[in-house]
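Hey team,

Filing this mostly as a record. A colleague (T.K.) asked me to run one chain through the structure pipeline before their review meeting, and I want the input and output archived in the tracker in case anyone asks later how it was produced. No errors, nothing strange. Just documentation.

Input sequence:
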Amino acid sequence: MVRYEKTIEIAAQPAVVWEVIRDVERWPEWTPTMKYVRLREPGPLALGSTADVDVDGAGRSTLRVTEYTEGRSFTWSATVRGVRFAAAHIVEPAGAGSRATLWVEFRGVMAAIFAPMLRRTAHRNVDIEAEGLKRRSEETARAGFPASSQRTEGYERMHTA
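Output structure:
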């Protein structure tokens, strides 16, 4: 098994960080590791959602949300070329801001064979994603991003029109 975890402090309220992290189709705007993300279902991310993604160093796959706690966390996973992959995204309050924890895990025989390459890719991508999440969340907070419920309503109007 290969696992890498990164925790980062963010100067933005958890609701702001959550809205940034759960709007997965916009990830390519703030993290160069995600070349493409498209949800297959309309509406916001939820338990059971699937997304087609193209990840730098990992290629294309379809991820399914296997765990979801609104406002707090989600995990998505897939099996690609014999490697079972899971990635979690956790947001929690920390002082006047937030703490985000991102982790990625690879399992299976192929993960053991390709462990050195997977470890390098995981470290690089998760570190870049954490820094991008911090930057986007703090920019969004400074710009006066609307509350979670207002953002969700806007998202639904935008994606159902």
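Quick notes for T.K.: The beta strands are 2-10, 34-39, 50-55, 59-69, 73-80, 83-94, 97-107. Helices lie at 14-22, 27-30, 109-113, 115-142, 148-160.
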